[in-house]
Amino acid sequence: MSRDLLVKRSILFFLACLYCFLSSSSLLAGEYIDSAHGSSTAGVFRPVIGDAPPQGFGYSRGNCAHCHEQHASIGGSEPVPTTGGASSYELFANNFDTTQKTIPYTESDNFCFYCHNNPTSAQLVVNNDYSQNFGCAPQGPTTIMSAMNQRSYHNLYDVWNFSKDKFSWFTTYSNPCDACHNPHLAKRNWANAKDPAYSAISKPTDHFALWGTTETMDSSYNTKYEPPYCSSSLLNREPNASIDAATGRANTPDYVDFCITCHTTTNTIFSTSLNRNLTAINWDSNGDKHGLRLMDGSVSTKAPYAPNSSGTDFVLSCLDCHEAHGSQNVMLMRRRANGSDLTSTIATFDTKNWGLICLKCHKDDAAAGVGPSNYWEYVHHLVSDAPYFEQGPCVTCHTRGDGFPIDCQECHTHSGTPTKADTRGAGIGTYRIPF
Ligand code: HEC
Ligand code: HEC
Ligand code: HEC
Ligand code: HEC
Ligand code: HEC
Ligand code: HEC
Ligand code: HEC
Ligand code: HEC
After folding, report:
1. Given ligand 5 and candidates 295, 320, 380, which is best to mutate, with the most ligand atoms within 8 Å of its CB?
2. Ligand 3 centroid, distance to 234 Cα (angstroms)
3. Pairing state of beta strands 433-434 and 412-413?
């Protein structure tokens, strides 16, 4: 049999398989064609099969075969035939290399990186980070792979390891990216950043639908959610310079519900990078104040977070502070928040530089008019409901000496136990204040 005939037969067999796939799965042709990958104008296209013969096979843009093929029969690299391996989804390369446990990631570690990377051997796709697409930040990392290869990232091995035991559709051969995305449905959100109908994400417990198309911060929290400023002019809101608060909250998917599908109070999540189990996130009324828990007394927040007289308590979106894939800062902290860039990176855990993101929304000493930027005497000592008396010996708390800063994470973490009432004048050590 000539090579050409072999290839043709493989393709025929492949298409037959896809047909079986199509009729047996909930994958509907219409939804796929409306997706980013299935788009006939912007979708998947590998020249090696898409170019006109004899260079390629003339497959049109968006065709499933740009990702799926029979054992790399057309233009992929032949993967090692391990049980189930790459061929279980008939992708042109291995779906995910489970031996790759930390960054730096390279193209062959993850099927998606054959395209969501630069340079690539298949098809280059440019993607900006959340701070830029939705938060008006200047240019940052330009691909998903480069976003992940930063100081902090959602560790793909950990996501894979967690998801395979948790979600019934997620198999040991699944791709960790697919815990949050459905490659057959994901849309071009960045190109329509003000329209959540173009969602790029799927909740792991509802993988065969897009998330956030109707489940928005508006529908879940209404005016409790105050979309942060976007442009430096502070005249518009996230996402992507929405004209006002009402539009901004209607344009923002409910990321809280999305993220806490995994980050619940009952799941145990191990982090290889941190080498420990993660703190559980509790956004309910008995959890964090940035969630539904009521603030106490007053807050010293900046616009647009003006506490209003009806007692409205704000609820934040996880992505007001975090990136989804990776960040130059520790803990996936965004490089821009509430309308301006962080002036420096948060490079370590034990630092007062956490304040660089807090001051985007809270009054530091500069904003309160009592001292320099990223100094925090005002909210802790001077404001009327300050938690601590400024009294000697100062070193009870400022263990490194009078006026020396105390690293913020010693007290401020997710899901700490509130101890404000008991801490006046006491030493610090074990206190954990939720934020
Ligand atoms: C063969 C190349 C290719 C592969 C492999 C690939 N993608 Fe894409 N992806 C694209 C292209 C092209 C787009 C559309 C880019 C655009 O919007 O201009 C896209 C878009 C997306 C989008 C929508 C946002 C956007 O940029 O438009 C998501 C989400 C996405 N891909 C996730 C994935 C995931 C997850 C995987 C792996 C399971 C994957 N992709 C594998 C080529 C690819
Ligand atoms: C961007 C690349 C890409 C394109 C294009 C693509 N798929 Fe997939 N497909 C995947 C990946 C990756 C998986 C593995 C899913 C996982 O990780 O669990 C998959 C899995 C599947 C599955 C297994 C069930 C499931 O949904 O997980 C079927 C069936 C399927 N694809 C059919 C198709 C068909 C039919 C088309 C065209 C209409 C298509 N795919 C286009 C990447 C793609
Ligand atoms: C923990 C969940 C999670 C994981 C894991 C994840 N993503 Fe995402 N991804 C998101 C969220 C949230 C967004 C932001 C919503 C948006 O951009 O529309 C996003 C957005 C995207 C986009 C669109 C970016 C743009 O330009 O707007 C692409 C493409 C993408 N992800 C690809 C990937 C790939 C490839 C992987 C694996 C290497 C991956 N994602 C892993 C949650 C995740
Ligand atoms: C599919 C489950 C899943 C979803 C959904 C998910 N995460 Fe995670 N997340 C994990 C796992 C697993 C880890 C541990 C790996 C790690 O630390 O990188 C983690 C770690 C983290 C970390 C610590 C990162 C670090 O520096 O080690 C942060 C912060 C985080 N997630 C925030 C989020 C946010 C924000 C969202 C919503 C956009 C989200 N997660 C959605 C599974 C998930
Ligand atoms: C995107 C804006 C934003 C950022 C960034 C932010 N906060 Fe907040 N914070 C708020 C809002 C709004 C409230 C009020 C919540 C409410 O109304 O329940 C609040 C409330 C608080 C409270 C409760 C105060 C009280 O009197 O009850 C603490 C403590 C707090 N924040 C600490 C921090 C720390 C520490 C950081 C930095 C690591 C930070 N915040 C970053 C917006 C933000
Ligand atoms: C009960 C504990 C406690 C005591 C006692 C205390 N402080 Fe503080 N102080 C704090 C906390 C918490 C902060 C906020 C974290 C930070 O900025 O270091 C703070 C912040 C400050 C700051 C801002 C430092 C910066 O770099 O942001 C100054 C200045 C300061 N305190 C001065 C004093 C002086 C002077 C005394 C003694 C007269 C004193 N404090 C006693 C808890 C205390
Ligand atoms: C010794 C423990 C401790 C340390 C260390 C600490 N804080 Fe606080 N902080 C508190 C307490 C207690 C409150 C009051 C919480 C409340 O009202 O719920 C508070 C409140 C805040 C608030 C909320 C102000 C508002 O709007 O009402 C911010 C912002 C804040 N701290 C930032 C920081 C920063 C930045 C650092 C590091 C430079 C830091 N804190 C270090 C204990 C601490
Ligand atoms: C106001 C900013 C802010 C918001 C909003 C926020 N986070 Fe965080 N997050 C932080 C900071 C600061 C840290 C680092 C301190 C810590 O570990 O708690 C952190 C740490 C984390 C961690 C690592 C916890 C660990 O084990 O150390 C996870 C997971 C996480 N966040 C998830 C979420 C999720 C899910 C949401 C939404 C429900 C969310 N965050 C909303 C600021 C925020």
Report:
1. 295
2. 27
3. parallel
Which residue bears the tokens 């860039």? 341
Ligand 4, residue 319: give the atom nearest the CA. Answer: 35
Residue 282 to residue 413: CA distance in whole angstroms:
11
CA 177 → CA 110, 286, 428, distances in Å?
A: 9, 32, 41
- pLDDT in the model for residue 84: 47
Q: Which of 302, 361, 380 gets mutated to test ligand 7 (max ligand atoms within 8 A of its CB)?
A: 380
Atom of ligand 6 nearest to the CA of 405: 18
* pLDDT tens-digit series, residues 159-209: 999 999 999 999 999 999 999 999 999 999 999 999 999 999 999 999 999
The DSSP output letter for 293 is S
**Of the candidate ranges 64-68, 73-77, 88-92, the one whose mean pLDDT is the lowest:** 73-77
CA-to-CA distance for 317 and 338, rounded, in angstroms? Answer: 12
How many residues are there in the chain? 435
Alpha carbon of 352 to ligand 7 centroid (Å): 11
CA distance 244 to 72: 50
C-alpha 401 to ligand 6 mean position (Å) = 10
Please give the full DSSP string across 152-216, using - where no structure is assigned.
EE--HHHHHHHHHTT-TT--TTS-GGGGT--TTT---GGGGTT-GGG-----GGGTTS-SSSS-B
* pLDDT above 80: residue 361: yes
Report the alpha-carbon distance of residue 163 to residue 137 in Å, rounded: 32
Q: How far is the centre of ligand 4, averaged over its atoms, from the C-alpha of 352 (Å)?
A: 23
Answer whether 148's CB lies under 8 Å from 116's CB.
Answer: no
